[in-house]
From TrEMBL:
Gene Ontology molecular function, alphabetical: ATP binding; hydrolase activity; kinase activity
One family name in Pfam for this protein: PRK
Origin: domain of life: Eukaryota
Domain AAA+ ATPase: 55-205, 510-656
Protein name (database record): P-loop containing nucleoside triphosphate hydrolases superfamily protein isoform 1
Taxonomic source organism: Tripterygium wilfordii
InterPro entries: AAA+_ATPase, CYTH-like_dom_sf, P-loop_NTPase, PRK/URK
């Protein structure tokens, strides 16, 4: 369990179980958790509770509107496979938004009691367009091992006694809207007054219940271009050609919306639509987004996932605070789904025109489908709001159209029936003052920056160096970006990065050269590729410029390992719009394998260089945009070390850990990051988040190679052989049950000459192993730092595997020593697709969720399983590897010699290369003749007793 924070205790409260006279509930967490961490804790808590009791596990997820409750419930359900009961379906038909009296608690309580008693039940279905209950839906108790109640009042006193686990979620748009309103209207109103105006029922009817939660989550996520929607839009009165056929062949969905834009009371008469609040009404539901956040890239409109449901009274509260509806229009939509895309025909009443809109999450797919369906331009990249403003003769950034008071009244009347905010008087909530906590009611900042910051340019004197010591005359011209004064989270940083590129293209023209720097594992590569997906540009990793002689010493974080002269030539060629050849580095062989051509063009006018030293003075002097990224696994590793050390009674500061684990960062990397135009703090936790999960099915059932080919797309099929060494590091003194487990260790994998880190065990649910889909590269000095902090290498694994993939499904065949057959793993981000692939291979009922550590230990004789009687020579190879890591990690790049003797690790790598050639020969034979995927046993696992090797040798196998 995660750090022991979520622990089982038996105490009075919670739901009574028939099997026990007392109740087992979760111990309340003293502090709030992030959304990612809270998701992880909730999943693990549900799993633990299922093991401790029979029957149904009930979970309540409550919190204010827009906090992220529904998103959390859906993400947990995608892993656990549970039933979600939305309290929205228990309305009694009264259109009063989130008024407590409109919820039919009697029916909800009866439904939960039926399920907990093992009875089937019927839950109501509410239609938001018709504003009434239209029927019911059956839920079978046999299929409802876990039930989640999702709703604003899910932690209400009438439900709490029926809930095993209570979760409170705050933040999201709830906090962000409070922060924006406070920014817009200033400090004239107290925070409590704003809460009572915008969320009138929160302090009286919602907040008191949140303090009864056992897991408390603060959701900082608001909007993100990580899941952007790409849109192509053109005018079209009626569908024609292939688009008409699409509407005829697919079931169409009709929707009618009213969309409003609210201008802040303190805003000037300039129509800065990015600062307006957008509210969309659909039936009795209201969705809010903060500002017109979008990116226009060539023909595409790119929008983030930025809309959140709020209560009806929130709109009334905003109007009462002085926000005015400056634009309101009706949008009637008829849409059909075509695979992963959506095709809509939208009519805007104010414009009296119809538009064809094609949407999808992948820009290339959207563009290709538009060509396939013969949907051609001219494309429109303006929003409906912009077109309405222009139709009324108002430039985008000038005075908005004069709207008379009567017009506003008409617009408001047709949206809502004269909303009136409810304000609770102080005397009604005085007893809550002692319970007031930042996690329930306070925005993260008393004032927040505007929804979208604005980039500015400054002129520099070419005869002088700038403040960072760089000669400005080396730039193409004397115009450069002014740095942003604050740091930003990953979501907003992504948006600002793209906007900076667009500003540079507009003001300086082609090309634009970007540098993204930061420590290992901070998220540089992820950010670079997300930017490239939006802008449509090329990403070049500085790792392509490694010098072979330095890489042999694993000096990936040393500036001297870069071929700076070639990098400078490539950047100079790009700036002068000359065709250039950038290197291709083969990490497996540790040598340059060739070159690829780059040429600046209208289609590819932006080049992104990303790497640890991308903002080094010798590099950034030639770049147009400097972006620094910190956080990510870089921070999570420090937290993990702090946790482990505190368990054994040793407390280290973050600075002490940083200097040991990331010794080069503070001296050679961090000083360059402070000069960045944009500073991004990556708080996203890809280790825990369901956004980055791989669903894995594992089996030792033999599968024919031809059957694997049938599962994968032949047009995208590729295969490879991967060799790796795993070492597991455990801090001495951490309590164990006499056997090594994944949760006690940090795994370091050496693969293709790289070091990758795993600091948390995966989630196991049913047949699936749910694990992060990302690897975190670290330097050899980081591994040496962990050893210096007291971690011991306790496990050593050398292995190889066949890998077959088509971009959607990956099938990995692992070969273990002393196993009668190889283990096969099916991996993918789509759980259903992975399950379908397993069924096609007839693997159902053969899966295991055991790690290779567990599998191997179970096969060892008891005497070896307890690590007794192992010969000392079995520890030799691990000892050599540890000594090599410590020596290379503590040495500087200048100490590396091209004429040095071959290291023990090099001998291991060379031997593995020979095995690759053998495996390739076997692969050819298997492909043509052998009906089964099979190869020689090539996995070596050593199990070593710590008492037999002082440096690091209590060895148990894992994988």
């Amino acid at each position: 369990m995660d750090d022991g924070v979520v622990q089982r205790v038996f105490q009075q409260g919670g739901r009574d179980y028939e099997s026990s006279s007392t109740s087992s509930i979760l111990q309340s967490l003293p502090l709030h958790a992030s959304f990612d961490h809270g998701y992880y804790l909730l999943v693990k808590s549900i799993q633990e509770l299922r093991q401790k009791k029979d029957g149904l596990v009930t979970v309540g997820i409550g919190g204010p509107s827009g906090s992220g409750k529904t998103s959390l419930a859906e993400k947990v359900a995608s892993v656990i496979g549970c039933t979600i009961i939305s309290m929205e379906n228990y309305r009694d038909g009264v259109d009063e938004g989130n008024v407590l009296d409109s919820i039919d608690f009697d029916t909800l309580v009866q439904n939960l009691e039926d399920l907990t008693k093992g009875k089937d039940t019927m839950i109501p279905v509410f239609d938001y367009q018709q504003k009434k209950c239209i029927g019911s839906k059956a839920i079978k108790s046999s299929s409802s091992g876990v039930v989640i109640v999702d709703g604003t009042y899910a932690l209400n006193a009438r439900l709490r006694s029926l809930l095993d686990i209570r979760v409170a979620v705050v933040g999201g748009v709830h906090f962000s809207l409070l922060s924006k309103v406070r920014y817009d209207i200033g400090d004239s109103c107290s925070l409590d007054y704003l809460i009572d105006s915008i969320f009138p029922l929160f302090r009286k009817h919602i907040e008191p219940d949140l303090h009864h939660a056992q897991i408390r989550i603060n959701n900082s996520f608001v909007s993100s271009f990580r899941e952007a929607i790409y849109k192509l839009k053109r005018r079209s009165e009626t569908p024609d050609g292939h688009s008409a056929f699409a509407f005829q062949e697919n079931e169409a969905q009709k929707d009618n919306f009213i969309e409003m834009y609210l201008r802040p009371p303190s805003a000037s008469e300039e129509a800065r639509i990015n600062d307006w609040i957008k509210v969309r009404q659909s039936g009795i539901r209201y969705y809010l987004s903060l500002g017109d956040q979008r990116i226009v890239e060539k023909s595409f409109i790119i929008r983030p996932k930025a809309e959140f449901e709020v209560g009806r009274m929130t709109l009334g509260g905003l109007l009462a605070l002085g926000y005015t509806v400056v634009v309101s229009y009706k949008r009637a939509s008829v849409s059909v789904n075509i695979g992963s895309l959506s095709l809509s025909r939208e009519t805007i009443d104010t414009l009296d025109e119809t538009y064809m809109v094609l949407r999808g999450t992948d820009r290339k797919t959207v563009g290709a489908e538009a060509l396939k369906m013969a949907i051609n331009g001219p494309w429109i990249t303006k929003s409906y709001l912009e077109m309405i403003l222009e139709r009324k003769g108002v430039p985008r950034l000038n005075t908005p159209p004069p709207i008379s008071s009567s017009s506003i009244a008409i617009n408001q009347e047709r949206v809502i029936a004269a909303p009136r905010p409810i304000r609770t008087t102080p005397n009604l909530v005085t007893r809550l003052e002692d319970l007031s906590q930042p996690w329930t009611r306070s925005p993260t900042k008393s004032k927040m920056e505007p929804v979208l910051a604005t980039w500015h340019f400054i002129s520099s004197d070419p005869s002088h160096a700038d403040s960072s010591g760089i000669d400005s005359s080396s730039f193409r011209d004397t115009i450069k970006l002014a740095p942003m004064p604050d740091s930003y989270d990953l979501d907003r940083g992504l948006l600002l990065s793209v906007q900076a590129i667009q500003a540079l293209l507009e003001n300086k023209g082609l090309p634009v050269v970007v540098g993204i720097g930061g420590p290992s594992g901070s998220g540089k590569t992820s950010l670079a590729h997300k930017m490239a997906n939006i802008v449509g540009c090329e990403v070049v990793s500085l790792e392509s410029y490694f010098k072979s002689e330095q890489v042999k010493d694993y000096k990936y974080d040393d500036f001297s390992s870069l071929d700076l002269s070639l990098l400078s030539k490539n950047i100079d060629d790009i700036l002068n719009r000359r065709r250039t050849k950038v290197p291709i580095f083969d990490l497996e062989t540790g040598a340059r394998s060739g070159f690829k051509e780059l040429e600046v063009s209208e289609d590819c006018g932006v080049i992104i260089f990303e790497g640890v030293y991308a903002l080094h003075p010798e590099i950034r002097k030639s770049l147009d945009l400097w972006i620094a990224v910190v956080g990510g696994v870089h921070s999570h590793l420090i937290s993990r070390v702090q946790r482990d050390k505190s368990k054994v009674g040793c407390f280290l500061s973050q600075n002490e850990i940083m200097m040991t684990v990331f010794p080069i960062f503070q001296q050679h990397i961090e000083p360059h990051l402070v000069h960045a135009h944009l500073k991004i703090r990556n708080d996203f936790d890809p280790v825990l988040s369901p956004e980055s999960s791989l669903f894995v099915l594992k089996t030792n059932k033999q599968v024919a190679y031809q059957d694997i080919l049938k599962v994968l797309d032949p047009a995208k099929f590729c295969s490879s052989v991967q060799n790796f060494i795993d070492i597991y590091l455990r801090l001495p003194g951490i309590p164990t049950n006499g056997q090594l487990t994944e949760s006690d260790c940090i795994r370091v994998r050496i693969c293709e000459g790289r070091f990758a880190l795993l600091i948390r065990e995966p989630i196991r649910e049913g047949d699936f192993i749910i694990q992060p889909k990302v690897d975190f590269d670290i330097s050899i000095s980081t591994v040496a730092g962990l050893l210096n902090l007291g971690y011991q290498a306790v496990t050593y694994i050398e292995a190889s595997a066949y890998i077959y993939q088509d971009g959607k499904i990956l099938i990995e065949v692992d070969h273990l020593q002393d196993s009668p057959s190889p283990y096969l793993q099916i991996k993918g981000v789509d759980k259903e697709a992975v399950a379908a692939a397993g069924s096609m291979l007839k693997l159902d009922a053969s899966y295991t969720t055991k790690s290779y550590l567990q599998i191997i230990l179970e096969r060892l004789p008891p005497v070896e399983r307890s690590s007794n009687g192992i010969h000392a020579q079995q520890a030799a190879r691990l000892q050599e590897l540890v000594e090599f890591i410590q020596s290379q990690g503590s040495s500087s790049a200048s100490e590396s010699s091209q004429s040095r003797e071959a290291s023990p690790l090099e001998g291991i790598i060379e031997e593995m290369q020979c095995r690759i050639r053998r495996l390739e020969r076997w692969h050819t034979i298997n492909t043509n003749f052998d009906p089964l995927v099979y190869s020689p046993h090539i996995l070596r696992i050593n199990v070593i007793d710590a008492s037999q090797a002082e440096a690091a040798v209590n060895l148990h196998p894992d994988f």
